[in-house]
Write a structure and sequence with these properties.
Blueprint (H helix, E strand, L loop, with lengths): L14 H9 L7 E4 L18 E4 L3 E4 L14 E2 L3 E2 L7 E2 L2 H9 L5 E4 L3 E3 L4 E2 L14 H7 L2 E5 L11 E2 L14 E3 L3 E6 L2 E7 L5 H6 L5 E9 L4
Parallel strand pairs: 1-2, 1-7, 7-10, 8-11, 10-12, 14-15
Antiparallel strand pairs: 2-3, 3-6, 4-5, 8-9, 12-13, 13-14
Length: 230
């Protein structure tokens, strides 16, 4: 990649590539819940040779990719955000109480959620944006708290350029001390012992450039590397 001009930053990853980074962690037999927004891209990039059971709190387990045209839409096969998905052989329909029993019983291996802010303690704010009179929680607090692993997939900065990875969340919390890993369009970071550890950077980026758009101090891993998809 050619050097960037002084004062500019390298290109960022798009949502599909971010999803491919997240999906590296999906293992055979994993039960995975995808949050509304860009985490849904993960359903489209799961390798065909990997059996992952996608779960929706609306009452589906084992569905397939998102459908983007009217062709083949099953009116009973929708997930959060009223998004139609592809039925899969062996897919299970669940009642609402059964679906949340899976979540609250600790049976979700990985939840992938969007975020508005994540801080150094692993606190998550993703349901109550400024100016809204009430939060839109849905199952977010249950998933963030009860999943075995909580991953946040979000853009590194907000639309106004403000950092979303911060020292302390200033938005109302969805769940405290729940985040294990953050995947953004410029970096992969882990929450460890009250620190945010920078593990990987997007192609062309340096740790210093990632730090320049981050609101929290990052601990750069000794083996920090460029993001790869394997």
């Amino acid at each position: 990649m050619p050097d960037t001009l002084p004062g500019t930053l390298p290109p960022r990853l798009d949502a599909t590539v971010m999803a491919m980074v997240v999906v590296r962690e999906f293992f055979d037999g994993a039960v995975v819940n995808l949050g509304i927004g860009i985490p849904m891209h993960c359903a489209d990039v799961i390798p065909p040779d990997r059996e992952v059971l996608l779960h929706s709190e609306h009452g589906l387990l084992g569905f397939g990719p998102l459908l983007r045209t009217a062709e083949g839409v099953d009116p009973y096969c929708f997930i959060v955000g009223n998004r139609p998905v592809q039925p899969q052989p062996g897919m299970v329909y669940l009642s609402h109480d059964e679906s949340f029993s899976i979540i609250r019983g600790g049976h979700i291996d990985i939840t992938v959620m969007g975020g508005m802010q994540v801080d150094t303690e692993g606190n998550l704010a993703n349901a109550h944006p400024p100016g809204k009179p009430a939060a839109n929680l849905g199952g977010a607090q249950d998933l963030a708290t009860c999943a075995k692993r909580t991953m946040i997939m979000m853009y590194h900065t907000a639309s106004d350029g403000s950092p979303k990875v911060v020292e302390r969340c200033t938005f109302p919390l969805t769940a405290p001390r729940c985040v294990d890993r953050i995947v953004t369009d410029v970096a992969v970071m882990d929450l460890e012992g009250g620190h945010i550890v920078l593990r990987e950077v997007a192609p062309g980026w340096t740790p210093e450039q990632v730090q320049s758009i981050t609101g929290a101090r990052l601990v750069v891993a000794d083996d920090v590397r460029e993001i790869s998809l394997v």
